[in-house]
Automatic annotation (TrEMBL):
SUPFAM superfamilies to which the protein is assigned, alphabetical: Cytochrome P450 (SSF48264)
Signal peptide start-end: none
Protein name, as recorded: Cytochrome P450
GO molecular function: heme binding; iron ion binding; monooxygenase activity; oxidoreductase activity, acting on paired donors, with incorporation or reduction of molecular oxygen
PANTHER family from the UniProt entry: CYTOCHROME P450 YJIB-RELATED, P450, PUTATIVE (EUROFUNG)-RELATED
Taxonomic lineage: Bacteria, Bacillati, Actinomycetota, Actinomycetes, Kitasatosporales
InterPro entries recorded: Cyt_P450, Cyt_P450_B, Cyt_P450_CS, Cyt_P450_sf
Family under the similarity heading: Belongs to the cytochrome P450 family.
Keywords, ordered alphabetically: Heme, Iron, Metal-binding, Monooxygenase, Oxidoreductase
Pfam annotation, one family: p450
Length: 413
């Protein structure tokens, strides 16, 4: 008879194997159960969508709501009460609220506005590379991949430099996924600290406004009533959190896969004009958002012959959709010259009204990070090429990223 501990150990082993490489599981589900009922630890009835066409349709289906208040019982079972105050934002809302909140920040992320940030992003990239050791192994994630986007988004928001490291630490705790009591207490404390931080920062912007996005949003709140006080705090958190975490993991994933695919790396280095298409392919191949944030069915809906009952949660596996052979030829191959590597081909940044607001910024940061890194250190290599990557291990998919990325910028010999 299997003991409880043996069962737990087996489950942990399965999770670890899935985190190392989820794609064989997704391939099986796309064929055998493209809309798969699940029993996750939080206990809410959930369906996982894995095929591209179903995923694309579900991402813009008005019957699949993003309004967390409409599924509050389910939300609390998953995230607890402390998350509610930080989640009163566009990510967790439907029209017209979503439209109103998104419109207030949309102008800061237009391609023209993002292009104006290029000199500052170049400056941050070069400064970070200046500080990296060249002849000894080090972890590229905390030294380069994370500081780049957190610096850029905090510049935009107007977060003081001395607070940025703490914000990154708190957001890392919030991003972790688990169900133990110790984990929940740590996450709740981090969420409370983040709420207090942004509440205090907004008060400071009121007293001494600057030329930054948070000052502008605070002025809109006070002068035009464009958003509530809690929406303002929650929006500030969302922009900070989403504005760095996903981009950092994307940069790490991209560097790892280029280092392990030397033919693809050589193509990008020899033909710099490929960098835009290369980033789109890297997002498709192994993007940093494995699964879209949850939706819930406001009525009975049917996908691929499977009925999803009213009230059930829906998870959309973006990583699986982006490897669907019904959409992409040889989807498990990384090909930076893949025909049709357009921005709207993959679902790595979502689709529909909730398409990632910061996608233009994430693209530019990733393009510049890859270009400058390999231009400056053409001999860069993995510190332990035979060791295999260590991926984040979480009970269910959210972020897809490396736990570490040890590299040597200028290997001996």
């Amino acid at each position: 008879m299997t003991t409880t501990q043996e069962a737990v150990t087996a489950a942990e082993r399965c999770i670890a194997e899935f985190r190392r490489d989820p794609h064989p599981v997704y391939a099986h589900l796309r064929d055998a159960a493209p809309v798969c009922p699940m029993k996750p630890p939080h206990g809410n009835e959930t369906y996982l969508i894995t095929r591209y066409e179903d995923a694309r349709a579900a991402l813009s289906d008005p019957r699949l709501s993003k309004d967390m208040y409409g599924a509050m019982d389910a939300y609390r079972r998953i995230f607890g009460d402390s998350s509610v105050a930080l989640d009163d934002n566009m990510l967790n809302s439907d029209a017209p609220k979503h439209t109103r909140l998104r419109r207030l920040v949309n102008s800061a992320f237009t391609p023209r506005r993002v292009e104006a940030l290029r000199p500052r992003i170049e400056e941050v990239v070069q400064s970070l590379l200046d500080a990296c050791p060249t002849r000894e192994p080090f972890d590229l994630l905390p030294a380069f991949a994370f500081p780049l986007p957190i610096t850029v988004i905090c510049d935009l928001l107007g977060v003081p430099p001395e607070d940025r490291s703490r914000l990154q630490q708190l957001s890392t705790t919030v991003a972790q996924t688990g169900f133990g009591e110790e984990f929940k207490r740590a996450q709740q404390k981090a969420e409370e600290d983040l709420h207090a931080f942004f509440t205090d920062l907004i008060a400071a912007k009121r007293a001494h406004p600057g030329d930054d996005m948070l000052s502008a949003l605070t002025a809109v709140r006070d002068n035009d009533g464009g958003l509530t006080e809690n929406e303002l705090v929650s929006t500030a958190f969302l922009l900070m959190f989403a504005g760095h975490k996903t981009t950092a993991y994307l940069i790490g994933n991209a560097v790892h896969h280029l280092l392990t695919h030397p033919v693809q790396l050589r193509a990008v280095r020899e033909r710099p004009e490929l960098i835009r298409a290369a980033v789109e392919e890297l997002v498709r191949y192994d993007g940093s958002v494995e699964s879209a944030t949850f939706r819930y069915a406001t009525e009975d809906v049917e996908y691929n012959g499977t009925r999803i009952p009213k009230g059930a949660l829906v998870q959309i596996a973006l990583s699986s959709a982006n490897r669907d052979p019904r959409k992409f030829t040889a989807p498990d191959e990384l090909d930076v010259m893949r025909p049709g590597n357009a921005q709207d081909a993959h679902l790595g940044f979502g689709h529909g009204s909730h398409y990632c607001l910061g996608a233009p910024l994430a693209r530019m940061e990733t393009q510049l990070a890859i270009t400058r890194l390999f231009d400056r250190f053409p001999g860069m290599a993995l510190a332990d090429p035979g060791g295999g990557p260590r991926w984040l291990e979480v009970p269910f998919p959210a972020f897809r990223g490396l736990a570490e990325l040890p590299v040597v910028l200028e290997p001996a010999g």
